[in-house]
Amino acid sequence: MSVQSTQIKAARPRHGRQYWRDAVQGYLFIMPVVLGLVLFVFGPMLVSLYLSFTEYSVLQSPIFIGFRNYVDMFTRPQLRVLQSLRVTVVFALFSVPLTLAAALAAAVLINQKLRGMRFFRTALYLPTVVPMVATVFVWGWLLNPQKGLINATLQFLGLPTGSWLSEPGTALPTLIALSLWGIGPTMIIFLAGLQGVPESLYEAAKIDGANNWRLFWNITLPQITPTIFFVLITGLIGTFQYFVPAFILTQGGPLYATYFYNLNLYEKAFRWQFMGLASAMAWLMFAIILVLTLILFRSSDAWVFYEVKK
Fold first, then answer.
1. Can you tell me the distance from the alpha carbon of 175 to that of 98, in angstroms, rounded to the nearest whole number?
2. 208 by DSSP, 3-state: which?
3. How many other β-carbons are positioned within 10 Å of the β-carbon of residue 244?
4. pLDDT tens-place string over residues 126-147
5. Using CA atoms, how far apart are residues 250 and 274, in angstroms rounded to an integer?
6. How far apart, in whole angstroms, are the C-alpha atoms of residue 202 and residue 219?
7. Residue 157, phi then psi, degrees to nearest 5
8. Alpha helix positions (H), 158-274
9. Cα-trace Rg, the chain
10. Cα 184 from chain centre
């Protein structure tokens, strides 16, 4: 018994002073991040979850009302929650594929080994550097039906002009087209993915007689599917959080044609002071994004190719 107890005691590691000093220093280094997450991320999330079950107008104490806010979102048309959600979904269905296609096409273009490609890379990425608010104001002036440069140019060329953001039928398609202006970051990500494709695969395919289309379809696309998957996830999340252009250019109009979900949430919270309802809307959006993300992750096994390095 004494021999076994001695062996057990010998097997237990004894941490010296240097170990505890390093451990304390490590915890101190990560403490700002942990406190930041607790105070500014998880803490507000938990508070908003509680407020979503209350009637709260900032100036008065929250009154617990159970699931009434969640029920009102689906049963009270005057809140326009479902309408704004439909506008956001339609925008996402068109904006995300168009942005991915345009960014991939631009990345393929600037990935060519030709003279002057650095200039084109800079030119295509430059709009992203400009602050979004300034960009939106410029586009608002360009798209003005009476004094805008776009209509003036079309009229000078003898082409029909457009109402753009002034008509319900064209306002949302115009914002979808404007979303292509910010493809710079997505283009850079695609460019990094394209440059990671092994040249040996292209050389082997060319020996077999593959043309450029076969190279792109059978080699490039399968190799960059992890990049496409990443851009698809981030693009979907960003699209459901669309706010600034609609807030500045249309304020949800005309006739609520561009009344996005985040714009509706903003008005409920800061214009009408329905903080409880706005919190419930935020958690509904969180649930929708979570479900869509999980669906994409579940479907990724069928089309995302991950190279296994041995």
1. 12
2. coil
3. 15
4. 888 889 999 999 999 999 988 8
5. 22
6. 7
7. -85, 0
8. 168-178, 184-195, 199-207, 212-215, 221-223, 225-240, 244-245, 261-266
9. 27
10. 14
3-state helix, strand and coil shares in percent for the chain, rounded to the nearest 5: 75, 0, 25
Question: Does the pLDDT of residue 14 top 70, yes or no?
Answer: no
63-64 and 54-55 beta bridge pairing: antiparallel
CA atoms within 13 A on the CB side of 36: 5
What pLDDT, on the 0 to 100 scale, is given for residue 118?
82
C-beta separation of 254 from 167 below 8 A: yes
The phi, psi pair for 273, rounded to 5°, reads 65, 30
Check: CB of residue 233 under 8 Å from CB of residue 293. Answer: yes
What's the half-sphere exposure (Cβ side, CA atoms, 13 Å) at 95? 27
How many degrees, rounded to 5, is the angle at CA 221 between CA 189 and CA 204?
115
Residue type, 191: L
The confidence score (pLDDT) of residue 2 equals: 52
Q: Tell me the torsion sign for CA atoms 254, 258, 260, 266.
A: negative
Which helix (H) or strand (E) is 54 found in, with range?
strand 54-55
The answer, yes or no, to whether residue 193 has pLDDT greater than 60, is: yes
User: Mean per-residue pLDDT for 257-269?
Assistant: 96
User: At 108, is the pLDDT very low, low, confident or very high (cuts 50, 70, 90)?
Assistant: very high
Tell me the two tokens of residue 49: 């979850």
